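Re-run with default settings, no changes from the original entry. Doing this only to confirm the output is reproducible before filing.
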Amino acid sequence: MLCELGAGGISKEITPNKAQRLLETLTPTTPVERTRHQLAADHIEDLRHLDTQLRASRRRVEEAVAASGTTLTDIFGIGPIVAAMIIGHTRDVARFTGRDHFAAYCGTAPVAFESGGRSIHRLSLRGNRQLNHAMHIVAVTQIAHRHSPGRDFYDRKLAEGKTPKEALRALKRRISDVVFAQLRAETTRRGPGGQAGATDTSSAAGLTPQQPALRKNHSRTTTNATTPPPRRPRQRHRGIRTRS
């Protein structure tokens, strides 16, 4: 809409303040331009309202993470939002038997394939994708900073002949192991059930569905619930013959 009102619109990132300043410099002349100008002004107000909601939501998340007392934010690349994602999707870390189980749930455990006598590790599409996304954010953040421990690990994998994607997957697996160890240490320190984000009923057993996983077949080929009573055999009545 800004491109239609002004030649080229805004060359860089559009923010409500930049859009407001651009609209103030424009003088619509035709009815169509005046309508677009008003709609653009309405969109600016909507964006400002959304920005206010986002700031308030982020503040609430930061307060909740701080109140939980988690130490996940001590890991390089994990801020309050990522920590909230990890805590919320992990629930009770005690339901995982080990770091391999946790990595499989995160989708950071690569799937091995044998091809031509060479073992190839490919990306796993299983597991919790939101938790996998959180691990991806941490990995990319560490790679972007040369002084981070993840960047040193990433460079070593490249030196070993790994491709950038393979090195990234290896780093995500390493990060998931560190996160699991951190959550397990918090649980040990606080005692059973004291892990942030956990409830008394959040366990592996709590994942059992209350209703059967498979529905009954209601197709017409099945028999009815009430079976009709069996038919009684016919009895032939023989008449009495009399001799004439």
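Helices lie at 2-5, 16-25, 31-68, 80-90, 99-106, 129-144, 149-159, 164-190. The longest strand covers residues 111-115.
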